Amino acid sequence: MPLLEIRDLSLCFGGLTALSNFNFSLDRGQLVGLIGPNGAGKTTAFNVVTGVYAPTSGRLMLEGQCIAGAPSFRINRMGIARTFQNIRLFAAMTVLDNVLVGLNSSVTHGFWGTLLRSPRHQREEIEHEAEAMRLLGTLGLADRADVMAKNLPYGDQRRLEIARALATRPKILLLDEPAAGMNPQEKIELMALIRLVRDRFGVGIWLIEHDMKLVMTICERITVLDHGETIAQGTPSEVQNDPKVIEAYLGEPVG
Amino acid sequence: MSRKKSENPDRPPAGAAPPSASAFEPPHAASVSPLWQTIRSNWMIPLVLLLLWPANWLVHDSGAIDSYQRRIIMLVGVSMMLAVSLQLINGISGQFSLGHAGFMAVGAYLSAYPMRTYDPQNPMGLVAYFIALAAVVGITAGVLFAIFFLIRRSGRLHPVMPSLLLLIVGAWFLVDVARAAKYEMPPAHFVWSRSFALLVDLFDGILAVSLPVANNISTFMPAAARPTLSFLIVLIGGGLCAAVAGLVVGLPTLRLRGDYLAIATLGFAEIIRVVITNSAPLGRATGMSGIPRLANFGWVYGGVIVTILVVWRIARSAKGRNITAVREDEIAAAAIGIDPTRHKVLAFVVGAFLAGVAGGMFAHFSSYLNPQEFGFLRSVEIVVMVTLGGLGSISGAIITAIVLTTLPELLRGFAEWRMIVYAALLIGMMLLRPQGLMGSREIWDLIPRFARRRAPVPSPTTPEGGSNAPP
After folding, report:
1. pLDDT digits (tens, 9 = 90+) for B136-170
2. What pLDDT score does B189 carry?
3. Which of A238, B256, B311, B456 is the one with CA 20 to 30 A from B42?
């Protein structure tokens, strides 16, 4: 049984079918891509998996448990973390605080512990800060811990989002266009980082990306969406040579 | 990841960074026991509270301060409590509430009501009063919830059912109230009035049964401590009532944002005021007088200290970070496992509780309550304090609470000009510092030595951060 299993998932907004009969599975340690032209329903697929939308029909299983329609925060606690296409950091908080918020599910001291600064509260604050700093170190942001998130350069913001997602100790990490707006050098670094994250944290990574070079290089499998329909699925080379994919991206062949 | 390798493991010495801040060293405080840290952060509190004794003597008995000044000092204290507690709701949790006067009124009236007839030797009787109140409110809420639940569930029979049932229940309710008002019939004739009378009977019944028991328990307490304890009980009880009101308002309205939430909370505060204006036991529009003057300087400023402590500790902890995260981006917060509703309600309920306690303080030093004092303008005044002090800045809220409460008094010499000066100051302030007096910082952030360790370090463009900038 795969870690994440999606069977015949559909999502309709009124008459518009944003996603139809979507099938997918993902295991720990895998690196899988999701591509497609703009408006194909890629981010919608992420939104359904993370509980932003409830699917109209179909099954959505995490470790054999149905998570369809569960609220976002509960799905995260069950082991799915994500980043966003348009970066959604907590802008007015520091880099360190952003990651510390990600550690919220491992906070065990309650309301009174907070008010009385109980020993457990003190211990957890220290441990969490150390853990957050370790995470930031792994992602190369340790020297920026005290900077406001909004003052970070773009590439660092993307990496901070990954750090924050990893802080929730996910089993599956969804990356929504992690390379958007990065220069070629940063993209090369990002590829190394994504591999590093997969190996060190043992998560299954599912990523949406428009940069074909990046996707084809690091992904083991790729799903191609167009107008909510899955038009191809397979290894990078299979997908690359699929006539339907070429058609979706370049239009119909002439002559 | 060439950058990661070349990176200096020690963080740049920006600000006064203690060794723990380094990512690659084990946490420094592993050597300092958490218990010791708890003691270290708490030992000052009883000391500061003890200092209130001499301060209380200075304000009340030394003769250095006359009764007019004393009243202003007390009002400043209540304003500080209100402003700091609203800072938790409006600043830290980012929900624009205009209903703070409503919570204050709930705390003021419900804590003062039993005190007018109370027996100073029976503090547990006040506990019985709040238990009776809780029973009545609980039963009412239960019945209302059951009706609501039934209406909602009726949708399973037919989609039109909920609207139909809602219409019937609403019409029945309106007709019933209107008839009771028009004919001034004895309450028994109308279901609504009759059920209200039943609740009053229930309240009296619980009190009649529990008061003697409570009296017996009270006799075990030292006689000298009983009045003090009584006041503490009504303060906390009033605060809890306000917290329940906060929960009742919060749960349905917190899905609203910005202006909409402001209007909803404003409406709630007006409902509270109108209910008080029309209920005979609370003195209607004439007000409630004869409340014992139990709140002295020590009580009020003890309340101020507790309020600041509670809000400060929530703000600077995991809870506060979660609350701020929800403020910054609700979707992102939910995506990393934070329940947005829970944290919004938490901020709202704690803020309401503290406002209720402030109301209790107010009731017990002014000795007279009038519904007019808890109107829209009072709410706006508190919001002005918070906004002017800087959203998110606790010390900013304290400073503006002091200034804005004393300023109208200091300007009394200008007679009719004083409100214009006051308004001009507000406008000038907003033009010159739209982010408020302190922004989101605290006053001690301005003093380098006390600056928070996580204060913003120089941006990457400065030479210091430049060496670490991406290639």
Report:
1. 989 988 988 888 888 888 888 888 888 888 888 88
2. 56
3. B456
Is the model's pLDDT at B23 over the cut of 70? no
Residue A90 is nearest to which of B2, B22, B325, comparing CB atoms? B325
Write the CB contacts of A201 (distance below 8 Å, at least 6 apart in sequence). A166, A173
Q: Is A191 on the interface with B (CB under 8 A)?
A: no
Instruction: Kindly state the tokens that stand for A79.
Output: 């082991």
Task: Sort B435 into a burial class: Cβ within 10 Å, 0-12 / 13-18 / 19+.
Answer: middle
Question: Nearest to residue B331, comparing CAs of B239, B257, B229?
Answer: B257
- What is the distance between the alpha carbons of residues B90 and B99, in angstroms, rounded to a whole number? 11
Both tokens of residue B260? 């909409």
Reported ipTM: the value is 0.91
The model's pTM: 0.86
Residue A180 touches partner B, C-beta closer than 8 Å: no
Say what the pLDDT of residue B351 is. Answer: 96
**Dist CA A41 CA A34 (whole Å):** 10
* pLDDT band at residue B190 under the 50/70/90 scheme: low
Distance of alpha carbon B100 from the chain centroid: 7
Q: State whether B42 and A116 contact (CB < 8 Å).
A: yes
* Residues A192 and A185 sit within 8 Å (Cβ to Cβ): no
> Which among B7, B38, B470 is the nearest to A118, CB-wise?
B38
A86 in contact with B at a CB cutoff of 8 Å?
no
The string of pLDDT tens digits covering residues B331-340 is 999 999 999 9
Q: Which residues contact B337 (CB under 8 A, 6 or more apart)?
A: A73, A76, A77, A102, A104, A105, A168
Whether residue A104 and residue B321 make contact (CB cut-off 8 A), yes or no, is yes
Phi and psi torsions of A243, nearest 5°: -60, -35
Contacts A105 to B, Cβ<8 Å: 337
Residue B354: name the closest of B4, B103, B139 by CA: B103
